[in-house]
Amino acid sequence: MNDIHIIDVLVKSSYEMNAVQLANLLEILLGERLSQGAMIMYFKRSFPEVPLRVIINASGWSRVSNGGLSDDDVIQLLQDWLPRR
User: Is-cis flag, bond preceding 83, omega within 30?
Assistant: First the structure.
């Protein structure tokens, strides 16, 4: 699956899914464990309206980094943008 297809799926799914659900979907689409860098890159390319600083902060998610953010923390950080309205 190429990057453009992955981004298209994330954009279409962003009307129904929160940030953690989208990250889980991204991991499935990539077919490998989600990394902090991949999360930042794909989220910024898929959701350009989200400030880069917010995406970087959300990548402190304990599942992709040594950061201490929980699922709820990530959802809260991105709740103004995801799911899209």
Answer: yes
Query: To the nearest 10°, the Cα dihedral for 73, 31, 42, 82?
Result: -40
* Contact status, residue 39 vs residue 61, Cβ threshold 8 Å: yes
What does the angle CA 40 – CA 63 – CA 72 come to, to the nearest 5 degrees? 90
Residue-number span of the structural domain to which 35 is assigned: 3-78
Neighbour tally for 28: CB within 10 Å:
11
Mean pLDDT of 25-45: 97
Residue 34 counted as domain residue: yes
Prediction pTM value: 0.94
The per-residue pLDDT of the chain, averaged, comes to 96
Q: Does 85 map to a domain?
A: no
- The count of domains in the chain is 1
Q: Which two tokens stand for residue 81?
A: 């943008």
